[in-house]
Amino acid sequence: MSFQDFLGNETTVRHLREAIAADRLPHALILAGPRGAGKYTLALKLAQTVNCLNPKVTDGLPDYCGVCANCTRIGQAVDLDARVDDAIAAREELREVDKKETRILVQTHPDVLVIPPDPPQLLIKLGQVRTLVREIYRMPAEASRAFYIFTSAAFMKEAANSLLKVLEEPPSHACIILLAENLGDLLPTIRSRSCIFRLGAIPLEQIESLLAERRPDWRPPQRALVARLAQGAVGQALGFDLETYLASRADALVILRNALSEPDYSALFRMTETYRAGAEGQEKTANLLGAMLSLLEDLLLLQSGTPGLVRNIDIQKELAAMSQQVSLDWIEAAERGVHQVRSGMRRNLLRSLSLDTFATELVR
Ligand SMILES: [Zn+2]
Q: Of 65, 133, 152, 156, which has fewest CB within 10 angstroms of its CB?
């Protein structure tokens, strides 16, 4: 792992690495750009480069080794969704009174705190910024510089005001990174106290040609599908498990077809029957729900007249026909249903049963 596996946005990345070389990385910076541009990956790479115990130089600029204790632990935060799911599951286990007080945070290294939007509202909350305020004035224990990474620009008002106070006089041993899809989501006063670096989306063609190089086992239509499913995120595209995705999507389609044409419950239950309890079943169910959400999003895109953004392009015809049969309300209800099955999974409810309920409720 190094900066050499970061695709795209060469100029911005070079400026940031030059700042590290000159020991002038700003104390507060905003990485702004669309989903999939690599904002989070880049933020972790910056934290790794500044704190690497065996730093190296590539293309004449500072880089990290990827294997020292600091690089490894910071790198463990890279699968953000999985880390956030762990934190949510841990919170679910708490007593009701503690649950309310517990905010979602990801910390795989003692001096690198990742602050994601807190569910269910998916906003950065005051309690999360309070943790930053409590920690940021202590000297880093194992890093040369502590990093605080906000993965969303959607702040609750009190949380934004509290962060603003820190930004007025940030300690020199810390770096605050804010990731924003839209700069306008951040208070002007927060923006004016931070350095802004912009990232652009990685063009689909660029990802497809990278896949052609690295995944020659995939045919061009498969590469086109994966590039879209990864939503422009290079790392996700390269590591994409296409076989598992297609199996999960086939099952999700059984549920949709059952709901939208003549219901065939025996076929449906034969399929849901294969979703068992235990860790394996849990993963299989999570994959099914992920595939279902990508199909529902495509139905939404087709309904809103933006077919160019559809991700499951290999079955676009069938999805277009389905989108004619459903309403916006139906799609939204189906999305809520997916989230209910997900939270049921966390409470260890019977999987096949909650899948059956979900599938049956979709029948109009
Ligand atoms: Zn290292």
A: 133
- Cα of 53 vs centre of ligand 1, distance in Å, is 5
68 alpha carbon – ligand 1 mean position (Å): 4
For the chain, the helix, strand and coil percentages under 3-state DSSP, each to the nearest 5? 60, 10, 30
Cα-to-centroid distance, 4 and ligand 1 (Å)? 14
Q: 50 alpha carbon to ligand 1 midpoint, in Å?
A: 9
Residue pair 297/323 in contact (Cβ under 8 Å)? The answer is no
Distance, in Å, from the CA atom of 345 to the CA atom of 362, rounded to the nearest integer, reads 19
CA of 124 to the centre of ligand 1 (A): 30
User: Among 184, 179, 178, which residue's Cα sits nearest to residue 164?
Assistant: 178
Q: What would the two tokens of residue 19 be?
A: 């700042």
Would residue 188 be called left, alpha or beta, if left means φ above 0 and alpha means ψ between -120 and 50 degrees? alpha
CA of 339 to the centre of ligand 1 (A): 38
**Tens digit of each residue's pLDDT (9 = 90 or more) over 99-119:** 888 899 999 999 999 999 998
> Tens digit of pLDDT for each residue in 144-190?
999 999 999 999 999 999 999 999 999 999 999 999 999 999 999 99
What is the token pair recorded at 190? 């927060």
The token pair that represents 212 in the structure block: 């052609």
